[in-house]
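Fold this sequence, please.
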Amino acid sequence: MNFSNEFWDPTLIWFAVGLVILVLELAVPGLILFFFGIGAWLVALLTLLFDISINTQLIIFFISSVILLFSLRKWVRKLFTGKMGLSKDDKESSGDMVGERATVVEAIIPPSTGRVEIHGTNWTAESDIEIKAGEIVEIIGKKNLTLRVKIIN
């Protein structure tokens, strides 16, 4: 067998397709492409063991990917996210940052919002007065994901 015949081997092609799809899963959230990558690897395994037509390969790829997606997605998602949840105390404290200090990382110029950093995380912030980047502010309220801040005197 020469190189060009080995390059066009269905097993290698399906393996490469599966690998590309799995790498794309890292860029596209949602845990959907993962199952199509596994489906492609399943077809690669079957083409290694059996001589099957391209139409059959495509049908196996599609059906196995969809079956894997609908039957295993919830289980795999739990596997990746774990059992991490907030206790009642954690939920109360995460929503209650009032009184804490933050650093302005993007100037707040009313009526537009800016950005502040607190505990290593950037938040959208608003204020009644202009606040320059680098200033230390106090959080005086929170509405959804926007913090209301005032400059510390």
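The longest strand covers residues 136-143. Residues 85-94 have pLDDT under 50 and may be disordered.
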